[in-house]
């Protein structure tokens, strides 16, 4: 399936494209297996906000540039260890950050579908990124795994608790405690990804899934996404789900009567609306 991407904005560490209701965010540091630094995360955050605010966009594809010169592919190898210091990953401003956690929350709360397209390595914080995406399409060369306990890190948030939701607590503990690498087929078998396709068909498959989703009701998809996340995300999840209820209520005559009455300085006539069973 071919699609004519248009560059939406130029960045240093990512590529950002749009076409036909789909946004594509590509981590573009293949020399580092697409490991992220704070700037990479800031740029991704900005692109995701842009996609959220654009009413034409219903699906975001998240992927990694590649292959690198050595022929290897990567979705993302997590935080750039060469700039990791006390208290986080240090950017050009000298401030250490773990700002990928902000990005994780943004992806989960985005009222649109986010699909990870994974070719090659999805490792460490890069693995967590695909885990929190709504759907994952893996290339047949994809390799999944956590490295935290090997490199002196851990993600005790969504990276572990939500992973356990996907693959079950025993498997999630195995992934974190042993730091092994898993093939695309193993990932499919444990429910970590939705499907596996040949690497040269990865983007086309992602576009196909996106186009199928775009035929569906935006409000239904929006409410379903927040419903899927609500219990895991606690009060923030309930806030999101309830926000969608308010949004729908604002689109309703009954809600409009309250606002109109206020503006017209008259008592509201809510007696015209039924108390539904
Ligand atoms: C991904 C690999 C398994 C690939 O191995 P391979 O042998 O194919 O390639 P190389 O190892 O030779 O790598 C090629 C080239 O890329 C550089 N590189 C790869 N990954 C990183 C990285 N993460 N950081 C920096 N640089 C990287 C590598 O140095 C090579 O460069 P040369 O100049 O030497 O050519 C393998 O590369 C690998 O295991 N990578 C490390 C994976 C890893 O441990 N990632 C970090 C985990 S911790 C994390 O991501 C993390 C981030 C957060 O922001 C958090 C926030 C809050 C809580 C937790 C967090 C967290 O855990």
From TrEMBL:
Metabolic or biological pathway: Cofactor biosynthesis; phylloquinone biosynthesis; Quinol/quinone metabolism; 1,4-dihydroxy-2-naphthoate biosynthesis; 1,4-dihydroxy-2-naphthoate from chorismate: step 6/7
CDD domains hit by this protein: crotonase-like
Binding annotation for hydrogencarbonate: 146-148
Residues involved in substrate binding: 33, 77-81, 89, 121-125, 147, 153, 250, 265
PROSITE patterns membership: ENOYL_COA_HYDRATASE
Keywords recorded for this protein, A-Z: Lyase, Menaquinone biosynthesis
Names of required cofactors: hydrogencarbonate
Keyword set includes Lyase: yes
GO function terms (MF aspect): 1,4-dihydroxy-2-naphthoyl-CoA synthase activity
Reaction it catalyzes: 2-succinylbenzoyl-CoA + H(+) = 1,4-dihydroxy-2-naphthoyl-CoA + H2O
Site (Important for catalysis): 89, 250
Top-level taxonomic group: Bacteria
SUPFAM superfamilies attached to this UniProt entry: ClpP/crotonase
EC number: 4.1.3.36
GO biological process, one term: phylloquinone biosynthetic process
Role: Converts o-succinylbenzoyl-CoA (OSB-CoA) to 1,4-dihydroxy-2-naphthoyl-CoA (DHNA-CoA).
Similarity comment text for this entry: Belongs to the enoyl-CoA hydratase/isomerase family. MenB subfamily.
Protein name (record): 1,4-dihydroxy-2-naphthoyl-CoA synthase
Gene giving rise to this polypeptide: menB
């Amino acid at each position: 399936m071919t699609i004519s991407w248009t560059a939406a904005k130029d960045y240093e560490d990512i590529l950002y494209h749009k076409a036909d209701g789909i946004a594509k965010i590509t981590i573009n540091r293949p020399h580092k297996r697409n490991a992220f630094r704070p700037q990479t995360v800031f740029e991704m955050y900005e692109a995701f906000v842009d996609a959220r605010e654009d009413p034409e966009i219903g699906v975001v594809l998240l992927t990694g540039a590649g292959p690198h010169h050595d022929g290897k592919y990567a979705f993302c190898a997590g935080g750039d260890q060469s700039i990791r210091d006390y208290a986080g990953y240090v950017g050009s401003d000298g401030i250490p950050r773990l700002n990928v956690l902000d990005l994780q929350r943004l992806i989960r709360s985005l009222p649109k579908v986010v699909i990870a397209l994974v070719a090659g390595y999805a490792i460490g914080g890069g693995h967590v990124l695909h885990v929190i995406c709504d759907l994952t399409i893996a290339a047949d060369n994809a390799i999944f795994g956590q490295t935290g306990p090997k490199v002196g890190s851990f993600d005790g948030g969504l990276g572990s608790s939500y992973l356990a939701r996907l693959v079950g607590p025993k498997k999630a503990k195995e992934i974190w405690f042993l730091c092994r690498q898993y093939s695309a087929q193993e990932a499919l078998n444990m429910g970590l990804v939705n499907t596996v396709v040949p690497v040269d068909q990865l983007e086309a498959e992602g576009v196909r899934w996106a186009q199928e989703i775009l035929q569906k009701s935006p409000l239904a998809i929006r409410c379903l996404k927040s419903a899927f996340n609500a219990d895991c995300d606690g009060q923030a999840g309930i806030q999101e789900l309830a926000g969608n209820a308010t949004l729908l209520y604002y689109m309703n005559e009954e809600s409009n009567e309250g606002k109109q009455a206020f503006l017209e300085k008259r008592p509201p006539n809510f007696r015209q609306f039924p108390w539904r069973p």
